[in-house]
Amino acid sequence: MLSGLAIMFLLFLIGGVVSVVKSARIKTEIPVEQEKTRRIKEWMAENLTQEIVQKWANPEVSQAENDLVIMAHIRSDLMKQYPEEDAAYLEMIAEEYFTEHIQTEEDATEE
Known about the structure:
This protein is mainly alpha-helical. Helix content is 85%, strand content 0%. Helix 3 packs antiparallel against helix 4. It starts with a helix and ends with a helix.
């Protein structure tokens, strides 16, 4: 009969093997995901110009409200352009793009 420690050892060993197999599979998916993200951000840079973003903004509301409206437009445009992609993935990319490009440009124009 196996003792409790031997059973725990076997469970941890099996868990380790499963983790190694999963990590190897995920490593092969990383370059594909990076390329997809790069293409989507390229599309955004070409199609979401500062002029378009300014049209979405309303000078009568706060900057925080405008940020929410702009983010909603970006997400909507991405979902129309890439309907096959997961909504959470597109939302993550939209937030990154907004933070890196639009929000920093807004901050620069306020100074």
